[in-house]
Design brief:
The complex is a heterodimer of chains A (about 450) and B (about 290). Chain A has about 450 residues and is of the alpha+beta class. Chain A contains 22 helices and eleven strands. Chain A has two domains: about 180 residues, D-Maltodextrin-Binding Protein, domain 2 (3-Layer(aba) Sandwich); about 220 residues, Periplasmic binding protein-like II (D-Maltodextrin-Binding Protein, domain 2, 3-Layer(aba) Sandwich). In chain A, the strands form four sheets. In chain A, strands 6, 7, 8, 9 and 11 form a five-stranded mixed beta sheet that branches. In chain A, strands 1-2 form a two-stranded parallel ribbon. In chain A, strand 4 and strand 5 form a beta hairpin. In chain B, about 70% of the residues lie in helices and about 0% in strands. A two-stranded antiparallel sheet of chain B has the order 1-2. Chain B is flat and about 75 Å long. Classes of the chains: A alpha+beta (about 450), B mainly alpha (about 290). Chains A and B meet through helix 1, helix 4, helix 5 and helix 21 of A and helix 1 and helix 13 of B.
């Protein structure tokens, strides 16, 4: 009797455990439509069919990934834009936000999702993502939407639209304009007896004078995307003449072996070897921003979004914002380009319309105003002007606009024009230049070889 | 005799299904697409063996990555395991400090690889890092060695972020030592054997199987190592610290060449299989 009891009990227990195991496997694969889901949800077709929008029905759900979270410089503006959009359009569109911890993690995730053809409904097309989506036929152009909404078209502006148009199709809508020069420590400049340089020879000479006065001239970095170093490199090339300026305004260059590029690399090599902090080689953005904010370097090339940091006492010493000036690069040049911005990745008419509504809000006058006030982001439209309160709080931003308006030569940053694998290559190969393992010509050839890998 | 085969199959079924869905299918796709040219958003196009010929005969970065990986596998499966074994034998002596030492030795292994990478990035920073700051105390106030970015020290610096921390090996060895019958030690002591002779001629020979297992675990861990390299050097300077997993990532996500990266993945799997079989043969794992 006991044996029978144990045998049947064991059978029941075994069956229960097996059922639990199988259910746990199927639960792992089930769709979870939570706001913070880390796996892609149901396809937009299924969700939109069950969420057809009408005044009486549930809002259309769209999926949006963002890396502008946490300590990111644009986290506040992102949160505010989403909040205001939800306030205004929450009954029509539900934005399912997934937070990604960094720019590079965002790019990797979008590439993985693009490989499986399951991208979010709204995608930021930065750093080559737009190329992938266009080539893979995963994005919807904005032409029809813009034609139906001339007001939105005028809010973005013809220049910004043209910057993201290929073969007559507008693939993305820009959310900001980059106007980048360099910031300098006015106190250090005064003690060294120098002014912002008008030529690159004067720039190199100023570095020597700063060193003689006991200061480190430049906050450079070769880690991550070598951002601050490459802003200077781009400016040397971009202001070198017609050929250099054309190079820095050409998308996806494949031949870096040009006289302008080689000369620029030689200058940057000198700067990295002699005119920068000890940790420049391999340093990331956090290191270089800290070096400038803590008064360890006199100059940092960067955009106006950094201005808010100068008065932030968690990043810079109190009163540091009073010591900072802004200048165009020698030759009166500035990096001036439109960000790639947002793309529609949605697959159904309902979700496309909802995605367009979200992007329209973010890139219209309201969204641009929020970005300016909370992120110090240069708006794409001239119709958006800083408020008096903003001007009082950030006079340096006003100064940077004036400098930008006065600059005569404009070009793009390397990140905006080169292939993603070239952007990734700087951090590996700059040490070759600095340690004299490569000449500038060999370095340029290596960049060309890396660019040639792209199909 | 009760037949349990039905239950065995039933309970193994979920695992088999999971393995098939997650691993087996993925490996078949990996192998198949390694013969294609495949970029994100485009369909794979069959190109025969061109990915493999490019990998083996043309790609110098692959070769550098392979040799770095092979060297790390060798170092990890020898020095790393040796450190773990020696530490385990010392701990087995149960001196007064042994529990404290065992706990402290475990710390680096319980921190995530990314956190370890960040930690070393700060410790070895040329400007404010604790290592250079300590060296400056001895006179050279300008000392600013860039440990991760100098060609002379990059490989060694990256290696030191994982080589000495053999706590997992130590734990496994200690557990195996605990399973050795005490009668063997008593007999040896009665015969006049010293502690060193007991360690060398009784304990260590009886650890053959577990040491072989640790060699396999340590070596194959180098075939997956990417987190610390990504956090510290990214594979640089140049290709000095590039390994195959890092190169697979760059080929797939930076060069947007999934076909070629999958062929490197197939190579890596084969490398791992050969390594495991070789160690099993050398250590005669599983045989008496």
């Amino acid at each position: 009797m006991r044996k029978v009891f144990y045998k049947s009990g064991g059978t029941i227990a075994s069956a229960l455990m097996l059922t639990t195991l199988v259910m746990s496997i199927s639960a792992c694969g089930s769709n979870q439509a939570a706001n913070n889901s880390t796996t892609p949800t149901n396809s937009p077709v299924a969700s939109s069919k069950s969420d057809n929008h009408s005044a009486d029905q549930a809002p259309v759900k769209i999926k949006y990934l963002t890396y502008r979270v946490g300590t990111h410089a644009s986290a506040k503006l992102e949160a505010e834009q989403i909040r205001q959009f939800n306030e205004k359009y929450g009954k029509e569109v539900e934005v399912q936000v997934e937070e990604i911890p960094s720019d590079s993690a965002y790019e990797d995730k979008i590439k993985i999702l693009a490989a499986s053809g399951d991208i979010p409904d709204v995608v930021m097309g930065k750093n080559g993502i737009n190329d992938i989506l266009i080539k893979g036929n995963l994005a919807t152009p904005f032409n029809d939407y813009l034609d139906k909404d001339p007001e939105w078209k005028s809010e973005i502006g013809e220049e910004a639209i043209a910057a993201n148009t290929r073969d007559g199709k507008v693939w993305s809508i820009s959310d900001q304009k980059q106007n980048i020069g360099y910031f300098y420590n006015k106190e250090m400049f005064e003690k060294a007896g120098i002014q912002p340089a008008q030529t690159w020879d004067e720039f190199m000479s100023n570095n020597e004078k700063l060193k003689a006065a006991g200061f480190v001239p430049l906050a450079l970095m070769t880690g991550e995307n070598a951002w601050t170093t490459n802003l200077i490199l781009a400016s040397i090339v971009g202001t070198s003449g017609e050929a250099g300026n054309k190079f820095m305004n050409t998308l996806h260059p494949v031949d870096f072996n040009t006289p302008e590029m080689i000369d620029a690399l030689d200058k940057v090599k000198t700067m990295l070897q002699q005119d920068t902090t000890k940790d420049a080689l391999g340093a990331g953005y956090a290191n270089v921003a800290n070096n400038f904010c803590q008064g360890k370097a006199a100059i940092i090339a960067n955009g106006p979004w950094m201005i808010g940091d100068f008065s932030d006492t968690t990043k810079c010493a109190a009163g540091f914002d009073q010591k900072v000036g802004v200048s165009a690069f020698p030759g009166n040049g500035m990096i001036s380009s439109y960000e790639v911005g947002y793309m529609i990745g949605a697959k159904t008419p309902e979700t496309r319309d909802a995605a367009e509504k979200f992007i329209r809000f973010k890139t219209g006058l309201e969204g641009q105003r929020i970005a300016l006030e909370l992120g110090n982001v240069m708006p794409v439209s001239d119709q958006v002007q800083p408020s008096e309160e903003f001007k009082q709080k950030y006079p340096l931003f006003v100064e940077s606009i004036e400098v930008s308006n006065q600059s005569k030569i404009h070009y793009s940053a390397f990140d905006s024009i080169v292939y993603p694998n070239v952007t990734d290559a700087w951090k590996l190969w700059y040490p070759e230049l600095v340690f004299n393992k490569s000449t500038a010509e060999e370095f340029a050839k290596k960049l060309s070889d890396i660019a040639a890998k792209n199909k | 005799m009760v037949n349990h085969k039905g239950y065995i199959v039933l309970f193994l079924l979920p695992t088999i299904i999971l393995f098939a869905l997650v691993y087996a299918v993925s490996m078949v796709i990996l192998f198949g697409t390694s013969f294609t040219e495949w970029s994100t958003g485009l369909k794979p196009v069959f190109v025969g063996f061109s990915n493999y010929t490019r990998m083996l005969f043309e790609d110098t970065s692959f070769k550098e990555g392979f040799w770095n990986t092979a060297l790390w596998v060798l170092l990890q499966s020898t020095l790393h395991v040796l450190i773990g074994v020696v530490f385990a034998v010392i701990l087995n002596m149960r001196e007064f400090y042994w529990k404290f030492a065992r706990t402290v030795f475990m710390f680096p292994n319980i921190i995530s690889g990314a956190a370890v990478g960040m930690l070393f990035l700060c410790m070895l920073n040329p400007d404010f890092g604790v290592v250079n700051s300590f060296i400056r105390l001895f006179g050279n106030s300008d000392y600013a060695q860039n440990w991760f970015m100098d060609y002379a020290t990059a490989f060694l610096s990256v290696t030191m972020t994982w080589l000495p921390y053999a706590a997992v090996v130590t734990i496994l060895i200690l557990a195996e030592i605990a399973a050795i019958p005490d009668s063997l030690f008593e007999s040896a002591r009665i015969d006049g054997a010293s502690e060193i002779k007991i360690n060398l001629f009784i304990i260590i020979p009886m650890l053959r199987n577990i040491i072989g297992t640790c060699v396999i675990l340590a070596g194959t861990s180098m075939l997956q190592k990417m987190d610390i390299i990504m956090m510290t050097t990214g594979g640089g300077p140049g290709n000095t610290t590039m390994n195959l997993p890092m190169y697979i990532y760059k080929t797939a996500f930076m060069d947007n060449d999934f076909g070629y990266s999958n062929s490197i993945g197939v190579f890596l799997i084969c490398f791992g299989i050969v390594f495991v079989l070789l160690i099993r043969y050398l250590f005669r794992i599983g045989s008496q």
